[in-house]
Amino acid sequence: ALELIDFKNALEQFQNLVEKMIIQKTKENSGLYTKDGDEIDYDKFYTTVRALFGPAVKDQNVQAFFRKIMNNPDERPEWPEIFGCFAGERDGVSSPSKESMVLLVSEKQQITHSVVKRKDVIKGIVKVPFLHLTITASQRGVLTVFNKQRKSFFSYSFYFHQDTAWITGCDFLPNLKYVVAVTESTVILWDYKSKESKSDGFVIKPMKNCLLCVCTVTMADNLAKDTILMGDDKGYVYLLTITNDDFIMKQSKAEKESQFKVLDSESFDIPKRKLHDDWVGKIKYFSALKRFGSCSTDSINSFVLDDIKRLEDQLPVKEFSVPKGVNAFTYCGKAKVIVTGG
User: Fold this and answer.
1) How far apart are CA 122 and CA 164, in angstroms?
2) Do residues 27 and 33 lie in contact, with contact meaning Cβ atoms separated by under 8 Å?
3) InterPro entries under this entry (predicted)?
């Protein structure tokens, strides 16, 4: 209770400080302000905020708050922003967390489980909301599934070693319930649910070009198969459909090192189309648009957005050019816009 009272007192002083700054800035804009000893500049604002809230505020948030007031005093920022929080009525927060009685912030949980060793890096993180899973793939071959149960995370990991190939991307197959990952020359399908062996799965190889990215095509028309898209270092985008029957009919002997069953890539019908003149940096399927997107550092064919049927025919695709290409993109359904980063 004493902490809450002290916080309320500090908050009142902070809000009074903000009001003085707004009055000062408004007078400056109208030419009526004359500088005196009570002028509030950034140094004075920073020192006062630090004295009121101590280490609870970060320097970048103090700077951002000060700039907002100075740039537009009519649209004053809300006080939670000084703590880096952006809570409002539209956030839909019904009740505060027990661990956060003052600031309305979303609950977060840190995963302390170490999934990679030294000189290894995470190359992909995928969330599977309907199963409460988080999947990570490391460059040197560690695939991990975090399963949130009883408010804690359980993880299943295995180390995939295939020559010296590095993993370049991962995703989840929602119908077959497999983790898919791509290396420079193979496609990995890991059955993370297998309790008998952590190395239960399949490897599709060889792939002629170096695979750089992978994503799942989310369609609910057939629960017995999954479709994935892949991009390579020659500008090609691949379309690969996998069914349960493929696991039975096309497998060969397991290799000694990985114990993964090998599926010959030549036995699959894998349509591909050259959409870019440089590496395919990212590929993503947007179920809301029923379109896939792929990007490249290619300055002419920088970003493609079209139906996956275009990978099986030669009809023109919808694309646009950006100088020096596109490295990343995403889609916002609420705003109905696609944003690219070059």
Assistant:
1) 17
2) yes
3) WD-EF-hand_domain, WD40/YVTN_repeat-like_dom_sf, WD40_repeat_dom_sf
Q: Which residues of 119-153 are buried (b: 16+ CB within 10 A; e: fewer)?
A: eeeebbebebeeeebbbbbbbbbbbbbbeeeeeeb
pLDDT digits (tens, 9 = 90+) for 215-249: 999 876 667 889 999 999 999 999 999 988 887 76
Q: How far is CA 4 from CA 8, 10, 84, 100, in A?
A: 6, 10, 19, 12
Helix (H, G, I), strand (E, B) or coil at 6: helix
Lowest-confidence pick of 35-44, 156-165, 232-241, 273-282: 156-165
Residue with tokens 């036995």: 267
- Collapsed DSSP state (helix, strand, coil) of residue 246: helix
Instruction: Provide the domain limits for residue 336.
Output: 122-341
pTM of the predicted model as reported, rounded to 2 decimal places? 0.65
CA distance 284 to 293: 5
Both 151 and 259 in a single domain?
yes
104 within some domain: no
User: What is the average per-residue pLDDT within 280-289?
Assistant: 94
Per-residue confidence (pLDDT) for residue 88, from 0 to 100: 43
Any bridge partners for residue 252, and if so which? Answer: none
Residue 318 lies in a domain: yes
In angstroms, the CA 311 to CA 201 distance is 27
User: 96 lies in a domain?
Assistant: no
In a domain, 112, yes or no: no
- 137 and 36, same structural domain? no
Tell me the one-letter amino acid at 280: V
List the CATH number of the domain containing 274. Answer: 2.130.10.10
Q: Where are the beta strands (DSSP E) in the chain?
A: 122-128, 133-138, 142-149, 152-159, 167-173, 178-183, 187-190, 201-205, 211-217, 225-232, 236-243, 251-254, 261-264, 272-274, 280-286, 291-296, 303-306, 319-320, 328-332, 337-341
Quick one: pLDDT at residue 64? 85
Residues 229 and 149 occupy one common structural domain: yes
Question: How many domains does the chain divide into?
Answer: 2
pLDDT in tens, 29-83: 787 777 776 788 888 999 999 999 888 888 888 888 888 888 888 777 888 888 8
